[in-house]
From TrEMBL:
InterPro entries: AKR (IPR020471), Aldo-Keto_reductase (IPR050791), NAD(P)_OxRdtase_dom_sf (IPR036812), NADP_OxRdtase_dom (IPR023210). This is Aldo/keto reductase. Coiled coil: none annotated. Residues 14-296 form the NADP-dependent oxidoreductase domain. The keyword Oxidoreductase applies. It comes from Novosphingobium album. The lineage of its organism: Bacteria, Pseudomonadati, Pseudomonadota, Alphaproteobacteria, Sphingomonadales. It holds the Pfam family Aldo_ket_red.
Length: 329
């Protein structure tokens, strides 16, 4: 299986995003099913698990810790800090004290003494970058983390942080219909030797070809708040998705596999972390790194779905203020 470097480790470029089992999309599976999914993934070649302290208020980390207990040397583990969702206390906090306390809480929930990669989940303009990176450096020196990264940061701020202490990874949304990293972040990571870890690489499930009626989304499904899934935009995007599904059939692969293969084809430093609640979908996703898809098909996919053809912004207005990654005008 093809491997790519992440924080000094050679890994399968298709990791597993662990948000879906606890939060955001649809109704979470039972804890028993979530544990079974993670164990199956580890048993069958998944070596990169990505979670965060806010996914289900720590529940995702707890499930990862329970599912993979006793097998810590078999997988690469990443988690995140910085987003505060605590009753009325909400916002971004990447102060050294918050980073340190958050890390200790994550390690306890994960049942480990270290994580391989610890991200600042969002950029905190209130805290000097050198101070936030300093806390990460202290955690590295203490052996609590092996490397640090950032999520949804701009190219300029990535460079500033990297100059203080080299970072291992930048995580950001990247898919056929979200191309913001192409405004600067992708080239910056390539130049500096940083891995780019793409979340939502199948467009929050839209490119899987299974969602057709947004009315079927659960009441609290996060996608209900996102403009691309709103009436008026969704119908236009669904037309693109139908054409994309036909293109994947022509290629002889599942729509999600074509979407993942396209992201992985963008650069050698790119990894993807699709999330799922299904063992079958996990297996489908996991095979994407080695599929021999004709470059002409990938090019047609990119021409079909891109920033110019998709309808609606990637985030609701309330969330756009927390995103530091460059945006399209």
């Amino acid at each position: 299986m093809m491997q790519r470097n992440l924080a000094g480790k050679a890994l399968n470029p298709v990791g597993l995003g662990c948000m879906n089992v606890a939060w955001a999309y649809g109704n979470p599976p039972s804890r028993e099913d979530a544990v079974a999914l993670f164990r199956h993934a580890l048993d069958n070649g998944c070596d990169h698990f990505d979670t965060a302290n806010i996914y289900g208020g720590g529940v995702s980390e707890e499930i990862v810790g329970e599912a993979l207990a006793g097998r810590r040397d078999e997988y690469f583990l990443a988690t995140k800090t910085g987003i505060i969702i605590d009753g009325p206390r909400r916002g971004i906090d990447c102060s050294p004290a918050s980073i340190t306390a958050s890390l200790d809480g994550s390690l306890k929930r994960l049942g480990t003494d270290h994580v391989d990669l610890f991200y600042m989940h969002r950029f905190d303009p209130k805290v000097p970058i050198a101070d936030s990176v300093g806390a990460m450096a202290d955690a590295i020196d203490a052996g609590k983390i092996r490397a640090y990264g950032v999520s949804e940061w701009s190219a300029a701020h990535i460079r500033e942080a990297h100059a203080v202490r080299p970072m291992a990874a930048v995580q950001t949304e990247y898919s056929l219909w979200t191309r913001n990293v192409e405004l600067g972040v992708l080239e910056t990571t390539k130049e500096l030797g940083i891995a780019l870890v793409a979340f939502s690489p199948v467009a929050r499930g839209a490119l899987c070809g299974e969602l057709t009626d947004i009315a079927t989304l659960a009441e609290k499904d996060l996608r209900r708040t996102h403009p691309r899934f709103h009436p008026g935009n969704w119908e236009k995007n669904l037309d693109l998705i139908g054409k994309f599904s036909a293109l994947s059939a022509e290629a002889g692969v599942a729509p999600a596999q074509l979407a993942l293969a396209w992201v992985l084809s963008r650069a050698e430093n790119v990894h993807v972390i699709p999330g799922t609640r299904s063992i079958a979908h996990w297996a489908e996703n996991n095979a994407s790194g080695d599929l021999p898809i004709d470059p002409a098909i990938l090019a047609r996919a990119g021409d079909l779905i891109n920033q110019q053809t998709v309808s609606g912004h990637r985030y609701p207005e309330v969330m756009r203020g927390t995103i530091d990654t460059e945006d399209f005008v």
